[in-house]
Amino acid sequence: MALLLGDTVPDFTQDSQLGPISFYDWAGDSWVVLFSHPADYTPVCTTELGEVSRLRPEWEKRNVKTIALSVDTAESHKGWINDINETQHTNVDYPILADADKKVSDLYTLIHPNALNNLTVRSVFIIDPNKKLRLQITYPASTGRNFDEILRVIDSLQLTEYHQVATPVNWKDGDDVVVVPSISTEDARAKFPKGVTEIKPYLRTTPQPNK
Fold it and tell me: 9, 45, 96, 159: which is the annotated catalytic residue?
């Protein structure tokens, strides 16, 4: 069955170009971005893997580990990484799972026959430190993923995990946030000393509390 938001994601052990990865042990207490690719030496994915590498400082600021997946072998990954490093001017230093037996692809429902026959679709999973699935997006093969959006979602998830707020449309780190409906306006004004603006009784905003 397909994973749903809030599900505990499956553990696995699988090979990579960096050696075997035991997923839960590797993830530890970090957030994880797991993103899949149809095959090695695909053009759109080449640019994506390079971008994820370039964003290393941003992942580290957020306690995020990144891990990719392709159904080709670890040796094939090494050759592809050489191309990625050359063409994208970066250094891919994170694991790419070598899911040749499709063990992980089956666990995470990455084979969509109507989309890519027997190849993995291009999905992104955000997984929290409790190994819960917090976001999943599946992209068409022709459209490169937007990792600025992935970072924005992680910022939102980490903010809303610890404060009783939600993030409105097009929110980005530092913008005002929305007070969750379960808090009364009176309680919200006590809880958020920076101020609460009541637009409607159910729509209240406050400056981002952790800024």
Answer: 45
The angle subtended at Cα 35 by Cα 30 and Cα 36, nearest 5°, is 145
- For residues 111, 117, 120, 126, the Cα torsion angle rounded to the nearest 10 degrees is -60
- State the DSSP code for 14: E
State the DSSP H helix or E strand holding residue 124, giving kind and residue range, or none if neither. strand 122-127
Which residue reads 């009364």 in tokens? 184
Residue 127 parent element (H or E)? strand 122-127
In DSSP notation, 147-194 reads: HHHHHHHHHHHHHHHHSSEE--TT--TTS-EEE-TTS-HHHHHHH-TT
Instruction: Read off the DSSP letter of residue 120.
Output: B
Q: Which amino acid is at 81?
A: I
Sort strands 96-98 and 64-70 into parallel, antiparallel or unpaired. Answer: parallel
9-64 pLDDT tens trace = 999 999 999 999 999 999 999 999 999 998 899 999 999 999 999 999 999 999 99
Closest residue by Cα to residue 107 from 65, 146, 69: 69
| Whether 45 is catalytic | yes
pTM of structure:
0.92
